[in-house]
Amino acid sequence: MEKVKILLAEDDINLGSLLEQYLVAKNFEVDLFNDGVKALQGFEKNIYDLCILDVMMPKKDGFELAKNIREHNQIIPIIFLTAKTLKEDVLKGFKIGADDYITKPFNMEELIFRIEAVLRRISGMSNSDKSIFELGIFSFDSNKQMLSVDSKITKLTTKESELLKMLCENKNDILERNFALKAIWRDDNYFNARSMDVYITKLRKHLKEDPRIEIMNIHGKGYKLILSE
Question: pTM of the prediction?
Answer without folding.
Answer: 0.56
